[in-house]
Write a structure and sequence with these properties.
The structure is a single chain. It is built from 29 helices and 19 strands. It is an alpha/beta fold and 696 residues long. It folds into 3 domains: 256 residues, 2-enoyl-CoA Hydratase, Chain A, domain 1 (Alpha-Beta Complex); 180 residues, 3-Layer(aba) Sandwich (Rossmann fold); 216 residues, N-(1-d-carboxylethyl)-l-norvaline Dehydrogenase, domain 2, CATH 1.10.1040. The longest helix is centred in the last third of the chain and has 21 residues. Bound molecules: acetoacetyl-coenzyme A (CAA) and 1,4-dihydronicotinamide adenine dinucleotide.
């Protein structure tokens, strides 16, 4: 292996290149090479200044996350950066791409910083459940105002070069795109000016009113919703403000180690790699994505409008078809409204918005306008009849090679594909509501879908900045199938004695942004009701069917949009428990002869998780999901499962599969139709294995 850190000395400058593709992560070899070269350069009389830069597409993107959890391999990053900072030779970090985490911390340890205009900077450690543990929490507050340090360290986002310059995080934005030359130019100038080393640690930390800081601390803790990292980040920033640098570093280390050893860190790292692994599906190896420029969307309701928006934001050309002109105009207004929102939030430039409304987006009532489309996504009513009719027509109109996709939530893609003479071009692209916001896309592969069509689904997701998960065909695919299972379990808890408000509280305390009943009220209870009515004829008589949601719908109460559902909704977006809902539930219990009992929050979560894990095990066992991690990424990105718990199957591994299986067996005594252990779960328990063992 070639040395990942190389130094050349030219005209009195030591130029250190970090070359550890793909993102110059700070592996042990990089850390060692970096400290050795900087110390050697400092010891060399001929060297008047040092330049550190990254080869390839970026400066350092942070610690090597693959080393997390392994035994420590010296030198540690805090030591490396402290040693770099203390050399007497002026040191320049020349930055391009993304200077992230340990990468930005390395730059903060250098004495001067120059960046290309396209460079971005951030401390994303909080997204991995940790804090910037190589002096970032101590040095950043010595450069930028405390409020900004709080935002960057607890928020984990990135800032651009212009803002970094205004904040004094960098000293200069270089012209052009040659980062090495930019570093050399700055170093030459520093030498000519006789500039000295300028350690960040020697500066005073920024000041802030104690009361303002306390408010920020409270706000961060509230937003963290169970995630420990942001809370420790605030404690570390407080140390930077109140302690001398060395003591602050010691405190940072303690707080870092606390997080590093916490299961939340392992869960967040699982999510980081899972979101990348999930794109590695067999079809990518055999099929090359088709070129997609022109997209057709059929149906401009909730989903169609969101899908069209998402495609437009990804730079695609979109034609949206509705049933009549009035519906088409309404859909156009919805899409334009979504796009204006994106402009307001700074996600879409005004010029791009103008280009979209000026020509890249149009509506129609005639499918003939799809003749040249490369991809058509259908988002009409959830009815097999309507969808089959649409696909039959598309088959006649669309050009050869066009991809025909359905956004169906539950229906069988094979039956839809059968209406065409090109089932190999038909696929499910299951977006989540709101489609221009939610990151998940289930790519549903039917029996005859060709590999390049699957690869195209993944390429589209990437272009839309979404996480695509490969799913097989079944009722509800991965996500909705699992949701249906845990919804039944939660309904069972309600019949047994919990209230919907107990359930929501327990789920929210577990880390979900919203409990199941609150979400149902927000999405509209009529959607689930319609699908339950559709399935009623196929319902197994042995199923213990909970009827209270149907009773609520029968009163015309569909949640927030009608002012009442499980909650009573106020104009000010307030939500209050509804005594009538409790009466409806009580009536169902007495009709079924159930004597309600006390159900603890712990039991609610045990039921919810047992049902979720059990159905997930079936989904993996049947090959609907390729691996356990595919299930985890689905639940994290589409169903609000707390990221710091890693996903249901990662969670199951951490609590132990035996505990989950025992829970299922205990609940079985109450309802032995629903609570049947999945064969894969039983097998893993019998073999003493984890779900993680199947991810490899
Ligand atoms: N360590 C190890 N591998 C990493 C990595 C890291 N820090 N960052 C990225 N990679 C890997 C990815 O897993 C991926 O590998 P595969 O190709 O095998 O899947 C590859 O590099 C390319 O990454 P992306 O697909 O994400 O490429 P991208 O161009 O879309 O994004 C990026 C590049 C913005 C750098 C993004 O990868 C990213 O955000 N990386 C993580 C950055 C981060 O969190 N840094 C902080 C680390 S913690 C730290 O530094 C702790 C500390 O203070 C001591
Ligand atoms: P919706 O009722 O809001 O929109 C459907 C739209 O399709 C209506 O505007 C209707 O006028 C139009 N339409 C119906 N038949 C048409 C035809 N033949 N040609 C052109 N337009 C036609 O429904 P929604 O919620 O957008 O759902 C659409 C599809 O997306 C369904 O299959 C649904 O299961 C699925 N889905 C829904 C999600 C949700 O949360 N609402 C999430 C993911 C998928």
């Amino acid at each position: 292996m070639t040395d990942p850190v190389r130094m050349t000395v030219e005209n009195g400058l030591a130029i250190i290149e970090i070359d550890n593709p793909p993102v110059n992560a700070l592996s042990q070899a990089v850390r060692q090479g970096l400290v050795e070269t900087v110390l050697a350069a400092d010891a060399d009389e001929a060297v008047k200044a040092i330049v550190i830069y990254g080869a390839g597409r970026t400066f350092i993107a942070g610690a090597d996350i693959r080393e997390f959890g392994k035994p420590p391999m010296p030198p540690s990053l805090p030591d490396v950066i402290n040693q770099i900072e203390l050399v007497s030779t002026p040191t320049v970090a020349a930055l391009h791409g993304t200077a992230l985490g340990g990468g930005l911390e390395t730059a903060l340890g250098a004495h001067y910083r120059v960046a290309l205009a396209s460079a971005r900077f951030g401390l994303p450690e909080v997204n991995l459940g940790i804090l910037p543990g190589a002096g970032g929490t101590q040095r950043l507050p010595r450069i930028v105002p405390i409020a900004k340090a709080v935002q960057m360290i607890t928020g984990g986002g990135m800032i651009g070069a212009k803002e970094a310059l205004e904040l004094g995080l960098i000293d200069e934005i270089a012209q052009g795109d040659d980062v090495r030359a930019a570093g050399i130019a700055m170093a030459e100038r520093l030498v000519a000016e006789g500039a000295k080393a300028r350690p960040t640690s020697a500066r005073e930390a920024s000041a802030i009113d104690a009361e303002d800081f306390a408010k920020m601390q409270a706000a961060v803790a509230k937003k963290a919703r169970g995630l420990k990292a942001p809370v420790n980040c605030m404690k570390a920033i407080e140390a930077a403000m109140t302690l001398p640098f060395d003591e602050g570093m010691t405190r940072e280390r303690e707080l870092f180690m606390e997080l590093y050893n916490d299961p939340q860190r392992a869960a967040m790292v699982h999510a980081f790699f899972g979101e990348r692994e999930v794109a590695k599906v067999p079809e990518i190896k055999t099929g090359a994505p088709r070129d997609i420029q022109q997209v057709g969307v059929i149906g401009g309701g909730t989903m169609g409008a969101g899908i069209a928006t998402s495609a437009l934001l990804a730079g695609l050309d979109v034609t949206l078809a509705e049933r009549d002109q009035e519906a088409a105009d309404k859909a156009a207004a919805t899409v334009t409204g979504h796009l204006s929102g994106a402009v307001k939030r700074g996600k879409l430039a005004q010029a791009k918005f103008d280009a979209i409304v000026g020509g890249k987006f149009r509506t129609t009532t005639d499918y003939a306008d799809f003749a040249q489309a490369d991809l058509v996504i259908e988002a009409v009513f959830e009815s097999m009849e309507v969808k089959q009719d649409v696909f039959g027509k598309l088959d006649k109109i669309c050009k050869p090679g066009a991809i025909l996709a359905s956004n169906t939530s539950y229906l069988d893609i094979n039956d839809i594909a059968a209406m065409t003479n090109r089932p190999e071009d038909v696929i499910g692209l299951h977006f989540f509501s709101p489609a221009h916001v939610m990151r998940l896309l289930e790519v549903v592969v039917a029996d005859k879908t060709s590999a390049d069509v699957v690869a195209s689904g993944f390429a589209l997701a990437k272009r839309m900045k979404k996480i695509a998960v490969r799913a097989g065909v079944c009722d509800g695919f991965i996500g909705n199938r699992i949701l249906n299972a845990y919804a039944k379990a939660v309904n069972g808890a309600v019949l047994a004695g919990a209230s919907p408000y107990d359930v929501d509280r327990a789920m929210e305390e577990f880390g979900l942004a919203m409990g199941l009943f609150r979400v149902a009220d927000l999405a509209g209870l009529d959607i689930g009701w319609a699908s339950r009515k559709r399935r009623a004829p196929d319902r197994d008589p042995r199923e213990q069917y909970a009827e209270f949601a149907d009773r609520i719908c029968e009163k015309g109460r569909f949640g927030r949009k009608t002012g009442r559902g499980f909650y009573i909704h106020g104009d000010d977006r307030s939500e209050a428990p509804d005594p009538e809902v409790l009466e409806i539930i009580e009536a169902e219990r007495s009709g079924k002869g159930i004597t309600p009992r006390e159900i603890s929050d712990g039991e609610i979560i045990d039921r919810y998780m047992a049902a979720m894990v059990n159905e997930s095990a079936r989904v993996v066992g049947e090959g609907i999901a390729l691996r356990p991690l595919d299930v985890d990424m689905t639940l994290l990105n589409g169903y609000g499962f707390p990221r710091w718990r890693g996903g249901p199957l990662h969670y199951a591994d951490t609590v132990g599969l035996e505990k989950i299986l025992n829970d299922i067996k205990a609940f079985q005594k109450e309802d032995d139709f629903f609570w049947q252990p999945a064969p894969l779960l039983e097998q893993l328990v019998a073999e003493g294995k984890t779900f993680a063992s199947l991810n490899r």
